[in-house]
Design brief:
Chain A: InterPro entries: AAA+_ATPase, ABC_Ni/Peptide_Import, ABC_transporter-like_ATP-bd, ABC_transporter-like_CS, Oligopep_ABC_C, P-loop_NTPase. The complex is a heterodimer of chains A (285) and B (276). Chain A is α/β, with parallel strands linked by helices and 285 residues long. Chain A is built from twelve helices and eleven strands. Chain B is α/β, with parallel strands linked by helices. Chain B has a single domain (5-275), classed as 3-Layer(aba) Sandwich (Rossmann fold). In chain B, helix 3 crosses helix 4 (128-141), helix 3 (112-123) runs parallel beside helix 5 and helix 5 packs parallel to helix 6 (188-205). Chain B is globular. Classes of the chains: A alpha/beta (285), B alpha/beta (276).
């Protein structure tokens, strides 16, 4: 039994100009101890899919799904209370903008402790001990002194570490990282990716990396799902994807990488216009 | 092309002084600690570094927005020093800039036509009809259509906006274009289109680029020369091949090691390590 299984997920948004299909029938499977990368450009629906799983979409969204099971339990059928037991504890998420996702009015110690307060019955002193442990685990120097720091007193990389500490506070079985390193410098990106992989390996949790960066995919993923405009183009293990991409869109993405440039100009996705136009027809049909 | 230096920078320094208060002493932050380089006409210099390394400070000095604290900048043979005032219009027309965020750098209330005509309106006495013609032909050059002339920025995608920002920057036919992370906010396929556009425009107008970026794969693709900056100092400066094949400074090596590798051998190696 896979850790997470999603079949035929569709998300529609109600907009002023009629319904907009953000996701049109995508499937995901993640096993424990596996790193799945969801790759796509903006508008591919990669974040929407995970927000649907977490129940974080606004009211204008209609989610339909044939199957959405976490450890064999149907998440869609859970009551709101039961759902909260799972979301935030067994499944947790890290967002793209670390500085924007932390509350500027509370200390980082408080914000990490909050997750523990909600999901565990640790006493207050046990909690603060656990928070220090967590900060240490994510590699923040002098974790004790950092408990009373506010987010604005930390750098972007450190804020992302705090977010990770928060996400792993309750030892989740599945961690979703939505573009965790996009806002960071390359050397910091390397540290954060290494940290995520280390934590994932130690705890054996499943990890979903949402990214648009093929380099990040190559460095982290076991398996890859490629999305374009709300539909799944290709799914394969990471080596096969880079060695012999099957779908024209994946080929286009890989050849648009500057390091793969062979000629004077880079090939772009619009060189694959025929494919894009046929896609557009399918969407409007 | 060789020997024709359009931009000559020598020992450029810039200090920011933070004001002291009642309980706080005045302190000085050196954002640039003596940077020197030359850029040849029609070539591209890439400036690489992380946030806080002084690359945007450098861009602001080159575009005559901020003065330098010390050192000299010569553009096309003329020394510029805005701390002494009186930079001529002709001088300012020679250097233009394209900013990182195409959402923040266009006025949401200004139609695209007006965006493109404004530099002409301010700097030349061309009549309205001629300005319009120039704007329309520029739209075409950057891969947009004449019907985009009357639209507002919010009607465009990020890649299209960056095309508009580039079009605005080259309206006055500058000699030197400073590009401050022009593709880092864009999707991969759009990034490729913009890089191609920049290469086309460079060929057509014999433009010189100072290309600021933190993305080494982009730099490797576009640059002729590379300068790596670290805490206000140029720790590495050389031709692209020199820097990429044989990085000297430990920071450059760290930077290369941190850049994700997407080639098949490194994926294979990683998977082998993981299985072990």
């Amino acid at each position: 039994m896979p850790l997470l299984e999603i079949r035929n997920l569709k998300v529609e948004f109600e907009t002023a100009s009629g319904p907009f299909k953000a996701l049109d029938g995508v499937d995901y499977t993640v096993d424990s101890g596996e790193v799945l990368a969801i790759v796509g450009e903006s508008g591919s629906g990669k974040s929407v899919a995970m927000l649907a799983l977490m129940g974080l979409l606004p009211d204008t969204a209609t989610v339909t799904v044939d199957k959405m099971e976490f450890e064999g339990r149907d998440i869609t059928k859970l009551s709101a209370t039961d759902r909260r037991q799972v979301i935030g504890k067994d499944i947790s998420m890290i967002f793209q903008e670390p500085i924007a996702s932390l509350n500027p009015c509370f200390t980082v110690g408080f914000q990490i402790g909050e997750a523990l307060k909600v999901h565990t019955d640790l006493s207050s002193s046990d909690r603060s001990r656990r928070v220090i442990e967590l900060l240490e685990a994510v590699g923040i120097p002098e974790p004790k002194g950092r408990l009373s720091s506010f987010p604005h007193q930390m750098s972007g990389g450190q804020c992302q570490r705090v977010m990770i500490a928060m996400a792993i506070a309750c030892q989740p079985k599945l961690l979703i990282a939505d573009e965790p390193t996009t806002a960071l410098d390359v050397t910091i990106q390397k540290q954060i990716l290494d940290l995520l992989l280390k934590l994932q390996e130690e705890s054996g949790m499943g990890l979903i990396m949402i990214t648009h960066d093929m380099g990040v995919v190559a460095e982290t993923a076991d398996r890859v799902v490629v999305q374009y405009q709300g539909r799944q183009m290709e799914e394969s293990d990471v080596l096969t994807l880079f060695e012999s991409p099957k779908h024209p869109y994946t080929k286009a993405l890989l050849s648009a990488l500057p390091e793969n440039a062979t000629g004077d100009r880079l090939p772009t996705v619009s060189d694959f216009r025929e494919f894009l136009e046929s896609e557009a027809k399918k969407v409007s049909a | 092309m060789s020997g024709d230096i359009i931009l000559k920078v020598r020992d450029l320094k810039r200090d920011y002084v933070t004001k002291g208060g009642l309980f706080k002493k005045e302190s000085t932050l050196s954002a640039l600690k003596g940077v020197s380089f030359d850029v040849e006409r029609g070539s591209t210099l890439a400036v690489v570094g992380e946030s806080g390394c002084g690359k945007s400070t450098l861009a602001r000095i080159l575009t005559m927005i901020d003065p330098a604290t010390a050192g000299t900048v010569e553009i096309d043979g003329t020394a510029i020093d805005i701390s002494k005032g009186n930079i001529s219009r002709e001088m300012r027309q020679k250097v233009q800039i394209v900013f990182q965020n195409p959402y923040g750098s266009l006025n949401p209330r200004q139609k695209i036509g007006a965006v493109l005509e404004e530099p002409l309106l301010l700097n030349s006495d061309k009549p309205a009809a001629e300005r319009r013609d120039l704007a329309l032909s520029m739209l075409e050059k950057v891969g947009l259509k004449p019907e985009h002339y009357g639209r507002y920025p919010h009607m465009f995608s990020g890649g299209q906006r960056q095309r508009i920002a580039i079009a605005r920057a080259i309206m006055l036919q500058p000699k030197l274009l400073v590009l401050d992370e022009p593709v880092s906010a864009l999707d991969l396929s759009v990034q490729a289109q913009i890089l191609n556009l920049l290469a086309d425009l460079q060929d057509e107008f014999d433009l010189t680029y100072v290309f600021i970026s933190h993305d080494l794969s982009v730099v490797r693709y576009i640059a002729d020369k590379v300068m790596v900056m670290y805490f206000g100092e140029a720790v590495e400066y050389g031709t692209r091949d020199e820097v990429f094949s044989d990085p000297k400074h430990s920071y450059t090596k760290t930077l290369f090691a941190a850049t994700p590798r997407a080639d098949i051998e490194s994926i294979r190696e990683r998977l082998a390590n993981k299985a072990a």
